[in-house]
Structures are given as C-alpha cells and as structure tokens.
Amino acid sequence: MPLSDFGSFVVVMDEISLHWADVNAALGGTTATDLKLEGALTRAGFITAKDVLDAFLIGFEDLENAREIGAGARDNLKGTLRQKLGQFRGMLRAVLPKSKYASAAPPLPNFGADESKFLAPFDDAASLWLRIDGDTTIAGFTPPLVIAGLTQALFAADILACRAAYHAIREAENNLNVARKERTTLLEDAKERMVQYRAAVEGIFGPTHPLTLSLPALSAAPGSTPTASILSGNWNGTTGEADMAWTASDDPNLDNYQLRMSPGTTYDAANSSVVATIPAGTLTLSTTTGLDNPGDVASFKLFVRLTTGNEAGSNTITITRP
Description:
Layout: H1 6-26, H2 43-95, H3 115-133, H4 152-205, H5 210-213, E1 231-236, E2 241-246, E3 254-263, E4 273-279, E5 284-287, E6 297-306, E7 311-313, E8 317-320
Antiparallel strand pairs: 1-2, 2-5, 3-4, 3-6, 6-7, 6-8
Helix pairs in contact: 1-2, 1-4, 2-4, 3-4
C-alpha cells in the first residue's frame, strides 16, 4: 500500500516494521548486527515512532470533534438568545408601548454574523433591560420586567455563556492549527525514515535480492494515472446535508472512491481529512462533515483510487451551509 492519506503512513510503517524483522534475521538476528538507520534508530525505535504517529492522528480526530461539538453548543446558545431577544422586543411592544423604551429595542442579528456583530444587540438589550428594571416612573408598570420567568440577570448570564462558547471555539481552532503543524512534522519525519530504510536495504542486499524486491512501496507503481471524476454538490435544505455526485470511472483497476474535505473556501491537502471511502459502483454521497453549523464552509475533492495505488483527484467544490 503506497502512501496516500494520513492514515496510510501508519499502515506503511507497520509493513516496514514487519519487513525489518526479516532483514534483521537475515543479518544475523543479534543486537549488534540488526539494521540501524541514521542516529542509531532501531526497529524498536521505528515502531515507537509509528505508535506515536498513530496515537497523534487519533488525537487529531478528537480535536476536530471538540471543535464541531463546541460549534454546535455555540449555535444552540445563539438560537436561544435570538428567541429571548424576540420575546423581549415583544414584551416592550405589549407592556411598554408608549414608553421611551419601546423604540429602543435592538433588532435581531443575523444568525451568521460574526461574533461582535452578533452579540452587540444582546448586550444592548441587557443594558436596556437593566434600565427598565430601575425605572419606577413608567405609568402602569411595576419593575422588574420578567418574561415567562426570564429575568435580566438570567438573560445576561446567557450572553456570557454564548461569549464563552465563542472563546471555546477559538481555543479549539487554535489547538487544531498547532496540531496540523505537528502532524506535518511527524509525517515528514516518518517519510524520511521510510526512505532511509528502503535505501539501506537496497544498499546492503543489492537491487535484485528478495528482501529488496519485497520492500513496501512508498509511492504507486509506475502506470497510467486514472482519469479524474467530475464532482458536483450542493446543500440540501430539506435533508440538512450536502449532496455529492460524481462521474463514474471506467478504469479496469478501480478500487474505490474517496471523498476528502478541508475547512474553508480553498482545498488544502495538508489540512484535509477523509470523509468516506466509497465502493466502486456508488456515485453519490450525502454528508454534513465540515458543515455542522450555519455559516460553515468546506471544500471537497473526490479521488479515484486504483488497486495499483495510483489515484487522481477531481475538481474542488466549495459548499456553504446556510
């Protein structure tokens, strides 16, 4: 299995560790004769590096989940706040229609507005509510203003909770950005070690030795690159998912299709993740990956993958969740 997506690195490293055991046996099977790479790296050290990478990639998925869960929690709070601001505005029209406060109620913000623009009307409403609660001069009204059990203090607490949720997402995104850099370093180091191993085995045994000929491949065998599929997709407001479709590959060596995603308006292979591996014969997929919350933007590519290890990526499509 040649190197392709991030997870393939662990698989190829495992293949090399098994091959390394055979090499060590052929060299004499002792600590002194075992193959060692630059810096006296042994097979055991290589396996440790593989396990570290494997654990890191699993942890990276957890970081992505934390970000998605945090975004969901934030959006739930945003929806709750908008509902309560609507109630506040309605109460001012119903209870204080002739007061100076009725026309001062802030409008509802757009759900997809950035943090400062979204929260500003709620801060304004909380301040206005506090003034109303302290005003004993309004004819026919006795403060405080309470809306179905909702007080100004509870409303202000909801605003603080929403602000904290925004902060939690920034923290999660920062953790992801740092982890992406760490992942790149780990993958580069792993590939360098694999290249060193292949060179060392061929240097010791020669190009025609069975141990050289059986070296795990790092890249696809020479051969024609498959014709890329054409990917299309859009957001389905009825199902709440992004619907993907692609043209079929007629390559006789077709193994499967793989949909990959990176956040944002530009597809970035270094920051991409596998959405799904789809069997040959299936030409559609619906997903919310990368599009869990309103305003999320994600870019997708569909890869045709052959049994030879060759692959070709489609055009990029970018989808925004309304």
